[in-house]
Amino acid sequence: MNKFYIYILTNHPRHTVLYVGFTDNLERRIYKHKNKIFKGFTAQYNCDKLVYFEEFSDKEEALLREKQLKKYKRQWKEDLINEMNAEWKDLHDNFKI
């Protein structure tokens, strides 16, 4: 069964930037962000701290959710993060998918 993920990264320690992304392999994608393999937005703004994610079995549903999150204002995204991860810990450090 395929799994798809939307996720939110932030920079640390100040959490001034939020980045919303989509992937079919969350561990691999976060590894690439943490090691600055992507030379784009996340590397430039040091966004490599995973603070939120959702899992989907349907790719189209995940892509729609990603587009939805990207449209939301920052405060809504912060509220979403706070519901799942009130301390804004790096979730990548504590799980295996």
- Kindly, what is the distance between the CA atoms of the first and last residues, rounded to a whole number of angstroms? 13 Å
Largest sheet: 3 strands, antiparallel
- Portion of residues in beta strands equals 15-25%
| Mean pLDDT, all residues | 93
* Alpha plus pi helix count: 4
Shape: globular
Order of helices and strands: EEHHEHH
SS elements, strand count: 3
What structural class should be given to the helix and strand makeup? alpha+beta
Strand order of the largest sheet: 2-1-3
Helical amount: 25-40%
Question: What does this protein structure show overall?
Answer:
It is a single chain. A hairpin with a 6-residue loop joins strand 1 (4-11) and strand 2 (18-23). The chain has a three-stranded antiparallel β-sheet. 38% of the residues lie in helices and 25% in strands. The chain is of the alpha+beta class and 97 residues long. The model has no long low-confidence stretch (mean pLDDT 93). The protein has helices at residues 26-34, 41-44, 59-71, 74-84; strands at residues 4-11, 18-23, 47-56. The two termini are 13 Å apart.
